[in-house]
Write a structure and sequence with these properties.
Structural class: alpha+beta
Largest sheet: 7 strands, mixed, barrel
Low-confidence stretches: none
Number of domains: 2
Strand order of the largest sheet: 5-12-9-10-7-6-13
Distance between the termini: 46 Å
Number of strands: 13
CATH class of the largest domain: Mainly Beta
Radius of gyration: 19 Å
CATH superfamily of the largest domain: Cyclophilin-like
Number of helices: 5
Amino acid sequence: MTQPRFVPVADQALLVEFGQTVDDETNLSVQMLDQALARTPPEGLIEVVPAFVNLVVVFDPTLTDHGAIQQEVLACLDERSEQIGNNTVRDVEVCYDAELAPDLEDIARQAGMSSEAVINAHLAGDFHVVMYGFAPGYAYMAGVPEALHLPRKTAAVRDVPEGSLLIAGPQCLVSTICMPTGWWRIGRATTPILTGDSQKPFLFDVGDPVRFKRISRSEFDESRGGKPHG
C-alpha cells in the first residue's frame, strides 16, 4: 500500500492522502485503508470518509488525538485485503431511449461513433463505486470506456430528473434527485439507489462492481406504472 501524507483537520480529524492523481491504484489504497480501519477501529474513531485519492478519519478528541490516529493508520498500511467491497455485483437497469438520453446523439458525434455503438460501449464498461459525494446516494463510479471520456459541459442544464444516468470524463453516476448538472445524460435508470433502510441507505458500498442492464422503453414505462417520464 502506498505511503500517504497526513494532514491534521481541526482538532477532530486527520486527512490521509495517497496521491494527487485519480487512478485505480490510488483509489485501491484508499479503499484498503478504509476497510482495514473498519475491521479494527481505533479507540475514539467516529467515522471514516473515503474519496478518490484520500480519506478523512474523524475521531473524538476527548479520547484520542492526531498522533495516535496516525499511528493506528500506519499500523494498518501493511494489511492486504484480497477483497474490496463485498464483490457483490450491483445490477442497475437503464433505458437508453433517445427521449430519456437527450445527450446521446451529441456524445456519439463527439466520440465519432453511432448512438448504438455508444450504448454498447457504455454497457461494456468495467464500473465500480469509488466514493459518495455531493448529494445523498451520489455514487461516483470509475470505469467509463476511454472512447466516451468527455469533459463536463461549459454550462449546467437545469431540472435534470432523478434516475438520470450521467457521464463526464472517466466517471459515471445515477442521479438521486432532480437538479442541475453539467454531466452528459446517456440514459435513465429504474433501479432505486436510495433504499429507505436507515442501516443501509444506499444500494452500493464503496468498492462494489456495478453492471448496467439495458431495458426497453416499454419496460421503463411499465416500471413507472405508466407515469410521465419527466
